[in-house]
Amino acid sequence: MVTTQQLELLAPLSGVLMPLEQVPDPVFSSRLMGDGLCIDPTSQVLCAPLAGVISNLQHTGHAVSITDASGVQVLLHIGLDTVNLGGQGFTCLVEEGQQVVAGQALIEFDADYVAQHARSLLTLMLVASGESIIDVSGSEVLVEAGQPVLRVGEAAVQASTQQAPSQGDTLFSLAIALPNPNGLHARPAAVFAQAAKGFAATIELHKHEQRINAKSLVAIMTLQTSHGDVVQVSATGEDAEQAIRVLSDLLVAGCGEAVTPVAQVATETTYASAPEPVRVDDTLLRGVCASSGAVFGQVVQIAAQTLDYPEAGAGEAFERAQLQRALLEADTALDSLGREFSQGPQGQIFSAHRELLQDPSLLEQAYPLLASGKSAAFSWAAAVEANEKVFRNLGNAFLAERAQDLADVGQRVLKLILRVEDTVQALPDNAILIAEQLSPSQTAGLDKTKVVGFATVGGGATSHVAILARALGLPAMCGLPAHVLSLASGTPVLLDAEQGELHVHPS
């Protein structure tokens, strides 16, 4: 959505203001749920930070969302793991659908009880609809409820929760019983919404007669799901089939939460997870098929390009200008690539990369480093690395693969900051590329007159690299043992992706 004017948010309670980075929960601190702030409360009444409608009130009373007239959604979340309290210690003073004014009391809570029975009392105020935060009051300062603490930007940021109409048939998953002890509360809902955003398809989540936009955290929470509730995923668009498969698996696995499997309503076709890499002997290595096909060729080892940069900057204004220049150049390049490949999956992937590039949370983490005297390259790399780490540590293979996309975008911008060109490697005919990891950008730019296939140690069958390989018609494997990196360039091999085998010196 797009806001048309600046919006000022008030402190929802009194307490010590803290930056999100200090919240001991990666889903909050990484801004996966949205940007905002945290307060360590000294009061016990949660108040509305803006006027609007109560768009969601969790039945456990620990979280509430408000949507204003322009569509800005603000999520208020009292404490960490407070969903486990089952409503004990919370008294709701409003109802879902009720109009409220800024400063109106929403929820009373027993701070002593919550502090003793939950992980933390830290309370979050997050802008869940995607607008950028352009001002936050200083951290570690005492604020009073009703005091202005945050401004939402004028809005040139398009939230990635919006779904353009998709063409084609709508596909449905089979019914899935949720294994999460408290249903899709804020944390698993954020993980699911983030995964859904990785697909171009229009995606909805269904519970009985209700259906919501699955790319919206707040919308998912409005379903008020509980353990064992039955839901379905629907998807419409070019990548609908893959979306159904990946998102169904994510729901069954608990969306990053530790869960005990529950009996499913119906058994869907299962997809085997990647086996451990196998080195049978020096002439046979096994991995996972990313793109089917078999081809003879010769090994070409592709080493990752190492970029060196200083930690110290040459002044905040100069370094900020360098970062802004690189971001603008990267955005222009991705937009051009998206248009060039608009009819295929390449275009969708570059569009997804552009969305990552426009994510305000990266700049929210980079700008304080610039202000502390760090270089543009150091600040950007640190912000990207922190977000990558969150994706990789969420315990979900699909989201870990999305970390690869973030790394690709990060590397693109870093090269532009440093004005470094891509390494150009001369390729022989019938080249089979071997690498620790190939990025989506590298894969999309492969010279098919030279490259006949590739194999990597990292990656997965649902990664964007695998999707690109299938679109390009290149046999590809992933998940190979690290020994493959020791094969000398020029070594003859047979890449039999369908069987998941790489034969060295085939007879």
UniProtKB/TrEMBL annotation:
Gene Ontology biological process terms in this record: phosphoenolpyruvate-dependent sugar phosphotransferase system
Residues of the PTS EIIA type-1 domain: 25-129
Coiled coil: none
InterPro entries recorded: Dup_hybrid_motif, HPr-like, HPr-like_sf, PEP-util_enz_mobile_dom, PEP-utilizing_PTS_enzyme, Phosphohistidine_dom_sf, PTS_EIIA_1_perm, PTS_EIN
Keyword Transport: yes
Domain HPr positions: 171-258
SUPFAM superfamilies: Duplicated hybrid motif, Enzyme I of the PEP:sugar phosphotransferase system HPr-binding (sub)domain, HPr-like, Phosphohistidine domain
Alphabetical UniProt keywords: Sugar transport, Transferase, Transport
MF annotations from Gene Ontology: transferase activity, transferring phosphorus-containing groups
Family: Belongs to the PEP-utilizing enzyme family.
Protein name per the record: HPr family phosphocarrier protein
